Amino acid sequence: MNKKKKERITFAGIINSLILGLFTFICVYPLWYIFINSWSSPAAVNRGVYLIPREFSVEAYTNLLEIPGLTSSIGIAFARTILGTLLTLMCCSFAAYILANRDLPCRKLLYRFFIITMYVNAGFIPYYLLISNIKLKNNFLVYILPYAVQAYFIILIKTYIESIPGELVESAEMDGAGLVKVFFRIILPLAKPILACIVVFAAVNQWNTWSDDMFFMQGRKAANLHCLQYLLYTKLQSNVVSTTGTGAAAGAAVKVTSTTLRMAMSFITVVPILCVYPYMQRFFTKGIMLGAVKG
């Protein structure tokens, strides 16, 4: 008769649990702090809100919804995130597959060329002139094309592909599969963990980036092409949002871009990432560990 062994509660186990609990609190509390402050009244926030919302108020979110062009900017943000992530995934994965081919001429030279781009760049002025010369200013493609190929992603995917047994590729080639067919039928399905990592990295980068909007979207032509983050940034900088809340004169401009509005802006920009990450989590750890180990 097997007896269940009771787990012993040791001092080391208690310390480990306390440390893990502390780190969990450090990671979770900032998001909770943003949430409760965004739903509290400005007066309560000024006095301090730390655990639960006080003097419940939707004023911050009401002011956000009144920002002109908010709907279109949300659409642009989602469009650039989805399309940009897909393009980055396809370009980087195919480039990594080519570089992982040991029969590729000048393979090491090309690989070093990609690595050099991680540490050396021409600077912002040549980059700005390049974007202007290829007619990407005030063009939605400026959100996507410059991010299509990224050396760091290529290195991660290449390292992962090299861990796939070469016999699988050889057997597929013996059956008549070409380069493209092997890539889509063999490599991509087996590389799901690292591809999920790239999706997370690329999507977060696309969603959070707004500097390209600030530099390359100017004038009336770009009025409907601003992404959400840049729109919120400009409104926060202006420090004036019109409101029709209680106690304010109709149509008057009131300074409400205090803590509550900043918290509301932060929360709505974080929510999409929080919704996507749990679906990628099961691939994330495995992919980043295997992809980061260089052979």
Distinctive features:
13 helices; two-stranded antiparallel sheet; disordered N terminus; MetI-like fold; 2 strands; 295 residues; 2 domains; single chain; mainly alpha
Notes on the protein architecture:
The protein has 295 residues and is mainly alpha-helical. The protein has two domains: 47 residues, no CATH class; 234 residues, MetI-like fold, CATH 1.10.3720. The protein has a two-stranded antiparallel sheet with strand order 1-2. The longest helix is centred in the last third of the chain and has 34 residues.
Strand order of the largest sheet: 1-2
CATH fourth-tier homologous superfamily of the largest domain: MetI-like
CATH architecture heading of the largest domain:
Orthogonal Bundle
Main pleated sheet: 2 strands, antiparallel
Name the poorly predicted regions.
1-5, 240-257
Structural class assignment: mainly alpha
- Overall tally of domains: 2
Spell the H/E element sequence.
HHHHHHHHHHHHEEH
Q: Using DSSP, what is the number of strands?
A: 2
Shape: globular
Strand-residue fraction? under 5%
Family: Belongs to the binding-protein-dependent transport system permease family.
InterPro entries: MetI-like, MetI-like_sf
Keywords: Cell membrane, Membrane, Transmembrane, Transmembrane helix, Transport
Membrane topology: Multi-pass membrane protein
